[in-house]
């Protein structure tokens, strides 16, 4: 059980953690209704996972190209030979074309990507204590099945229709054998989720609808009409700035908003040219990323919780289990997924990941040992006796902004002048 819990913390919990943060932002900070919060949550999760689907599509396309290249030769072998001789000749053909049996999993990679997102969303929505507050038109209670048509649940069927349509658009370039898992999965979800709370089905309906729209956009190359990356990026940055500023009603919030807006509108092309467009950085970026991730993981997963428990041992129970759970969560968020994303994406994304985590590592060290602060007592449920003690003052905000700025300058100097080597030595 402990091993399964550790596996869940490393693989699924980081996604659930992101989902929880997004829902809290929409529902509690922006004061959106339950239905609007779930809508924005589904949209955000789809946008965040879109790069993964794009990579899956590229891999699947490569697998299909190799299969098409080998098809005529394999068909000829099957028509002439049988038994072991057929098998050996087919394997020889695959080796000649650089094809490995594991490549067959590329065909269902899009489905495999959905699994951790589904499990995370399922657990999160089921954990909401106030799900009954949610409603949407004829759906009066998100915590119960919809029962919209004489006791028959409608949302599972609309979800299945959206899913099958999305699969139909996507499977135009697939064979019947390759497309069958898409339709079978849709039917399995219909059976498994039929009596689920309408809040979960509302979320999954939106996911399937967004998936349908995404497949239409990709299949008919509608995205080419919006192939202006800089315009889209700057528009998104301005929208983030307006939203944050609109919901800020204190001087501290406005200063933070302005600072975030400045960071969001940085010219990444200039950063790429100045800092990371050199062979030395590319040579050391993997080591730099791993060293940075290990620093953050050890501080957040071992050092800080151990120090907290040690400061008041009697207030906590099951110390070892608590530390193991916390450490496995930190491994998932700060080590497993960053390295996983590093392995998947292009060289440019690898550069930015290494740069970002090398910067975060310095901030974690400073926050842990320099800016620890004096706060009120915290109980075993991690609730502060005095919540106001953790609210930042105007002075705290200014100090943090200065330290962040100095850290950025420090990272830049280390990369430009010393070519990463001294930074890796410091981290080690």
Describe the structure concisely for a colleague:
The protein has 428 residues and is mainly alpha-helical.
Tell me what the structure shows:
The chain is mainly alpha-helical and 428 residues long. The chain has helices spanning 2-11, 13-29, 34-80, 83-96, 109-127, 155-170, 176-192, 198-219, 229-246, 251-264, 268-276, 279-311, 319-344, 347-369, 394-418, 421-427. The chain is globular, with a radius of gyration of 25 Å.
Key attributes of the depicted protein:
428 residues, mainly alpha, 74% helix
> What is the global morphology?
globular
Name the average pLDDT. Answer: 78
Helix content: over 70%
What distance separates the N and C termini? 34 Å
Tell me the Rg in angstroms: 25 Å
Strand content: under 5%
Largest sheet report: none
Order of helices and strands: HHHHHHHHHHHHHHHH
| Spans where pLDDT lies below 50 across 5 or more residues | none
Number of helices: 16
* Overall SS class: mainly alpha
Number of strands: 0
């Amino acid at each position: 059980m402990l091993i399964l819990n550790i596996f869940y913390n490393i693989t699924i919990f980081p996604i659930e953690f992101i989902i929880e943060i997004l829902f809290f932002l929409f529902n509690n900070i922006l004061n959106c209704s339950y239905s609007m919060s779930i809508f924005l949550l589904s949209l955000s999760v789809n946008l965040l996972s879109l790069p993964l689907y794009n990579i899956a599509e590229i891999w699947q396309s490569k697998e299909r190209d190799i299969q098409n290249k080998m098809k005529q030769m394999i068909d000829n072998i099957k028509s002439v030979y049988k038994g072991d001789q057929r098998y050996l000749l087919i394997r020889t053909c695959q080796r000649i074309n650089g094809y490995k049996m594991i490549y067959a999993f590329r065909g269902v990679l899009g489905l495999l990507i959905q699994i951790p997102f589904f499990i995370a969303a399922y657990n999160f929505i089921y954990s909401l204590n106030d799900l009954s507050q949610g409603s949407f038109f004829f759906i009066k209670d998100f915590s119960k099945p919809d029962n919209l048509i004489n006791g028959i649940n409608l949302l599972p069927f609309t979800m299945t229709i959206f899913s099958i349509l999305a699969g139909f658009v996507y499977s135009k370039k697939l064979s019947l054998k390759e497309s069958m898992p898409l339709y079978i999965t849709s039917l399995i979800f219909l059976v498994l989720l039929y009596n689920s709370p309408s809040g979960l089905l509302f979320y999954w309906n939106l996911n399937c609808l967004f998936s349908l729209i995404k497949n239409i956009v990709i299949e008919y190359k509608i995205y080419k009409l919006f192939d202006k990356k800089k315009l889209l990026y700057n528009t998104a940055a301005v929208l983030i700035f307006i939203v944050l500023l609109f919901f800020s009603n204190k001087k501290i919030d406005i200063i933070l908003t302005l600072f975030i807006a400045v960071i969001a509108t940085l010219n990444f092309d200039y950063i790429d040219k100045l800092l990371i467009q050199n062979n030395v950085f590319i040579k050391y970026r993997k080591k730099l990323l791993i060293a940075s991730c290990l620093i953050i993981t050890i501080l957040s997963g071992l050092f800080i919780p151990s120090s907290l428990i040690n400061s008041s041992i009697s207030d906590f129970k099951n110390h070892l289990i608590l530390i193991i759970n916390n450490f496995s969560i930190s491994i998932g968020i700060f080590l497993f997924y960053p390295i996983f994303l590093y392995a998947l994406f292009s060289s440019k994304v690898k550069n930015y990941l290494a740069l970002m985590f090398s910067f975060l590592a310095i901030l974690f060290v400073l926050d842990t040992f320099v800016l620890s602060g004096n706060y009120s007592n915290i109980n075993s449920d991690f609730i502060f006796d005095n919540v106001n003690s953790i609210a930042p003052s105007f002075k705290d905000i200014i100090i943090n902004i200065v330290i962040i700025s100095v850290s950025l300058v420090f990272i830049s100097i280390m990369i430009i002048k010393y070519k990463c080597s001294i930074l890796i030595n410091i981290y080690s």
